[in-house]
Write the structure tokens for this entry.
Amino acid sequence: MVNWVRSGAPWIWLTAGAVSLSLLAVLGLLLLIGWKGLGYFWPAPVYQFDIEQAGHRSVVIGELYERKWVPLQQLKDAGVDTAGFAGDKIERYVIKTGNREVLGSDFVTVLAPYVKKQHLLDDVAVVERLKNGLAYGVPVALYNDGEKVSLTQLAERLEEAETIRRELIRLEKTELAELSHQFEQLRKNGGSDTSRAGLEQQYRTLEQTMHSLRRLLARDALVIRVMTGQEIRLPLDQVLSVWQPNQMSLLGKVSHWFLKLGSFVSDDPREANTEGGVFPAIFGTVFMVLLMSVIVTPLGVLAAVYLHEYAGRNAFTKLIRVAVINLAGVPSIVYGVFGLGFFVYIVGAGIDNVFFSAELPAPTFGTPGILWSALTLAILTLPVVIVSTEEGLSRIPNSVRHGSLALGATQAETLWRIVLPMASPAIMTGLILAVARAAGEVAPLMLVGVVKMAPSLPIDGQFPYLHLDRKFMHLGYHIYDVGFQSPNVEAAKPLVYATSFLLVTVIIGLNLTAIGIRNHLREKFRSLEQ
């Protein structure tokens, strides 16, 4: 036993066990987030709950959202009549009823002893709307331009409404945006009355076209009977989709799940970010990280090359290295304050004074934007790239440098053609660490560019096509906003899990891309290292 301990085998097994536990913990966390988030898009069954409380009978229709056990004493303290309740704990149902405009809330809480009967409703439908969240009810009638038609035409009418809605969105994002851009250029640069009259005529024509499409979109309506017995009219211009989960087959549910997951990834958010998709946040996160990578990589490599290849071995160089290492421990919010004060208020204001003086006092670059966010995160992650690159340079044998110099190459040629290619795996390692940290940062971005809702993406079809002065959305900030600033936190909770899982997926995708490039470079230059 003593010899076994002295051999170091216990420490090997202890290390392996610690790594295994860490991997299991990370995997368990990902599974939990994925289950909570991705399960939101699965069509849950809808029940009818017959409730009797204090002699009063009522009906609740909705999804069984959550079941909790509540201590009996807690109910007594809350003033609930607990006469006839047995046991120390009582089960409580949280039912998602939707119909926010009718009931005032998305959820109803019911104690299990009050539920006399619970059964599935085959004819109930779930309606996804642009406003007021989901609606639960039994379809009663379908109207087309004021005339009652068969409910079997609902799918056809919904498809037609979706086509018109997408055409309206296309016109707003392309032709209307282009006209607005031309009006703005005309205002800046001046123009003839003829040019202005032509643009105004194009605008009136486009406005008439969009008005006609909106009239077509608003002519249909669906009537459903909700759990209160009231019949509510839902114009199809506000209805996105309708499904009957209790009548779906397994294949239908899987198809519905993929459809809703695709909509979540590709659509814009709505209802104060508590409904809809997260595409602008995905685009903003990826674009900001790529822009940050383009900035931080050359800066970090140049700094590491100078420190390792050119700087002397003296106290000043040691001080610089200590400063670089200490910068990695500075809280990220400090970088955000620095980015706001230096990049936005000094550099951005200077750019406005020189190049965009005609736009003042409305700032162009003198306001938070995606460029300043990328620069702030580049400075935040710069120490990681410097340290990783310098470690890679130190692992290259001096004999390689001496051999290159002996063959007549200059030091710059040796660095460019021999040393840096061999150190490229270490550079990619630094970039991987930088991406992993930058993609999840939120605090500094709140000061230098990220917003709750961005009106347009940083890339569009208008010259100069790449708009680095624009604000943007970010998955990390989206999680914070939905989870803590939402007016309906309970209803938005599944979206927090779904967005968190999506953020982890984006970070893993970016890292796997960088790892693939690093492994390719490592194999390419392995022979030189040997």
Summary: The mean pLDDT is 87. The chain has 17 helices and 13 strands.
